[in-house]
# Entry
Amino acid sequence: MSNDARAATRSATALAGFLVVAGLQLAVVLAVLWTVLKLLPADFALRAGVPLSLATFGALGYATWRALHSRRRVPAGVAVTRADAPELWALVDGAATAAGVSPPDGLTVVADATVVTGEQTRALGLVGGRRDLYLGLPLLQAWDTARVRAAVAHELAHGSTRLGRWAPAAYRGRVVVGRLASRWGRGRNPVAVVLRAYAEVYRRRDAPFSRAQELAADRIAAEYAGPVAAVAVLRDLPVLAGMQRLFHAEYVGPGWQAGHVPEDVFGGFLRVLAARGEDVAILRARGAEPGGAWDTHPPLAERLAALTPPAPSEEAATDEAPAAEPAPVVEETADELVPDLPGLGKALQAVAFPSHGRTEVGWDGFLSVARTAEMEREAEAALATVSRAVGVPVPDAERVLELAADGRLKTAAATIFPGLSPEETADRIVDLLSLMLALAALRSDVARWRHNWTGTAELVARDGNHLNLTDVAAAAADPEQAEAVRAYLTQIGVDLAAPVGDRPAARAQVLGGLVNLSADGGRTDLLVTDLGFLLVPGLARGKGGDAKRRLHQIAATGVPVSSAVPESPEGQTAVATMEAPVDGRRFVPFVDVAAVTALPGRRRGWVLGLHDGGSLTLRSSLDTEELPGGWAAWEDAVTFLAGTR
# Structure
């Protein structure tokens, strides 16, 4: 038996240890329960036996099942059959043959820049089941066929038996345990303490196999697609994923939250890749980010070195023939693998980015409404602050110019920014005037946005000519030029009191979710957004799966909110409120939270003090679960609130 095969066997044996540890815990509790019942009088033991068993052995058994139970996450995507894309399936079949595994049972194209195998497993991965391959559409769009071939071969090679018959089970177990380990570190499951301690032992015993298995998968990818393509995948996959994160944060996210959706999400991603080559180069030079504690991949430098043959020494070069150059990568575009890749992209967008009432527009319109919506939110907050400072409502640009003309805007700015110099305060006044004039020009249909895909946008006149409102704003800050500025703006058609007009309800960005919390004693589910907490009445015990699916649907639909500028100087700020709460839901904006207090004890809990004098008590429970990133989002929100209240 080779060293790698022995490492795989040790890893699988250590994996089975989780089941042994869990069984020993139950056996110990059962033995203690039996001993206690034997010591009690017979009549009392008969009466107390059932409730005592349920309270101890039954509760621990349920906790053990919950701690070791893992649901397979199925990403949203479009299934591609052999008839739909025979060439793509031929590539997958070839990769499976190269890896020595059977082809996957299904192939699904997903939105993320990734390639991953999902398998229905039992007993922590010791027993396998149906396998599906999930392939990211961005890979088919941006890569040549050779790189797609290498990426698929590497992923399927995780199920190869080259490192021994137990290698597939060992790999499946590492993935399952890595997913469960995050749950063992949170909540109050009594079984988690022992499992968490044993997980450290397991990880040390599994480390040699995980390293060898990833390197073996790299070698299989190089054998099937060529070493050049295998190396390119190692370098470029993190880059593509990073660019996709940038694309969603800077291009899709703002317009999505403003209530719109682009007509062609994936086409926009290709444009960003083509336009932002400098960012691609920076990400490639930076390399992949360090993986977490349960990441199976060795460092990138080690993987690249293993795929790069050593250069021959000078002595060897004189006696031996020159080493053969690696076979060149055939630069076939991967979109030829799918007959109608744009059509597949549209079908995937309907699944991965359902509009849920959002308005579908072209990219120019989408980017325009996104930029305008950001300015509207900024203006609402600024106007609320100025309103408090001057003691009267300030609803629009016309009123701001009046304040600038009579000098009250300068006085208000000095009150709002007491620590700034007069020059810095004047700059803030010009910034506010520039913002308000730009919005007035947009609302009056005098200006529009001109976009490019480098991440910048320029405000231009409706006919495309240059529009310099910054100099106009600087002049408006001078009371002596106020009337001249007003006359100029009227001449070019800017209505300073132009209304906002109809716009779709904005959606708060959902950051994470928690299922089965206790809110003031009642079961509730919770979504953490960038504007506040959405509380949804919980379902009955035992319906955790239904509750998570419901929360996923709410998150996908979005949490509609509106921003209200205070109508009186007593208003505090622009406030996010939920549009038409339904089904007993409650939205708690961050601005309503006055204080956060952590409750003592093993059961995690917090009290949110509210500005209206009320409070909200939230506690975790035995069956609390999280949507991906739920606890992290909650802790970030609590830390933010505690640090700013």
